[in-house]
Amino acid sequence: MRTVDPGTGTDAGPDFDESSPESEAESAAPPSRRLPVLCAVAGFVLGASVLGLLWGLSGVHAGALDDAVAACQALDRVGELPDTSRDAQPALTPGLSPERLHRMVAARELAAAAAQVNANYQPLADHIDGVSRMVLSLHFNDISGQRHLTEAKEACGRI
Q: pLDDT tens, 49-98?
């Protein structure tokens, strides 16, 4: 079959492309970028969601446990506290060194942080807070404070 070049009217060779230059410009329009952009955004959102979920589930309770253990260790490092609750008239209220007072405050704050994240540690935080109030006021004859000390040590033994 013989083909004729429409522009020149001569015979076209076997390499002749029947499409015109105008139709090539129309068919060479850039493909839409919507699909790749949409896929990239969806991938980013999905990845960020999974990462956030894993991060949220992995660290919350472990941090509370670490804080509770550290609170118990700080309370232990305070050392033995005097018990003047049995004395009718304590002769002299014993004092504590600033280091021991700082450890007591640290124990209270760590226990409060653990209880804020995980309500299971609320009793520990309450007992350490009671001990802290007794220690910071230097009223070692406070029966309630001594009871809180006993309960805090028992709670620390269960952790």
A: 888 777 766 655 568 899 999 999 999 999 888 777 666 555 555 667 88
Distance (Å, whole) CA 128 – CA 122: 10
What are the φ/ψ torsions at residue 4 (nearest 5 degrees)? -115, 135
DSSP sequence for 18-63: -S-HHHHHHHTPPPPSHHHHHHHHHHHHHHHHHHHHHHHHHHHHHH
Residue 151 to residues 16, 33, 106, 131, 159, Cα–Cα distance (Å): 96, 66, 18, 10, 13
How far is Cα 113 from Cα 119, in angstroms, rounded to an integer? 10
DSSP result, 100-122? HHHHHHHHHHHHHHHHHH-GGGH
How far apart, in whole angstroms, are the C-alpha atoms of residue 59 and residue 28? 53
HSE-up (13 A, CA, CB side) for residue 90: 14
Output the pTM of the full model. Answer: 0.58
Nearest CA-CA partner of 71 in 114, 8, 40: 114
Helix (H, G, I), strand (E, B) or coil at 67: helix
